[in-house]
Amino acid sequence: ALAVLSDPRKRREYDEECFGRAEPAPSRLNAELAEKVEQKRQQALALERQNRQNLRETIARGWASAPLAGLRRAAQSEGAKCVAEMVEEKKAEMEAIRRGQRAKIEDAKARASSRERCTSSTSPEEPSLEAPRRSLTSDRYEAKIADRVAELK
User: Please, which of 4, 77, 79, 81 could form a disulfide with 85 given CB 3.0 to 4.6 Å?
Assistant: First the structure.
């Protein structure tokens, strides 16, 4: 049995007799394996080409729709503005707002200066007949101060 198992040719003959089939030859297995590997490699290359094409198309669509992209500028469409133009517009808008606010302030100052200074019903020349009201707290405070002054004398 050892002589049959150790010799590959005898082993193949024995297997064919017992099982009615032969093992495929190693060269045939290698050829099939190489063929499958080549098919997979071709599929991978085709998929890679497809992905590259999709990427190029996506980049082209992005460049076409972006008014500013990175350091390079895409062709400007009619509605797109560069950053310098937007800054100038914003400055002009802020200046217009500032002028409007300044005009309102000056107008308010002019109206305030044209009004009468004293609008109270009693004139400063006439003394008031009513005595000013005092609170209980101030009365108590003054009483305590008067007591202390009296103690110190």
Answer: 81
Q: What is the DSSP string of the chain?
A: -HHHHHSHHHHHHHHHHHHS--PPPHHHHHHHHHHHHHHHHHHHHHHHHHHHHHHHHHHHHHHHH-SEETTEEPPP-TT---HHHHHHHHHHHHHHHHHHHHHHHHHHHHHHHHS-S---SS-TTSPPSSPPP--HHHHHHHHHHHHHHHHH-
70: left (phi over 0), alpha (psi -120 to 50) or beta: left
Q: What is the pLDDT of residue 124?
A: 54
What amino acid is encoded at 70 in this protein? G
pLDDT of residue 130: 67
Cβ neighbours of residue 83 under 8 Å, at least 6 residues apart?
A: 68
Q: What is the pTM of this model?
A: 0.30
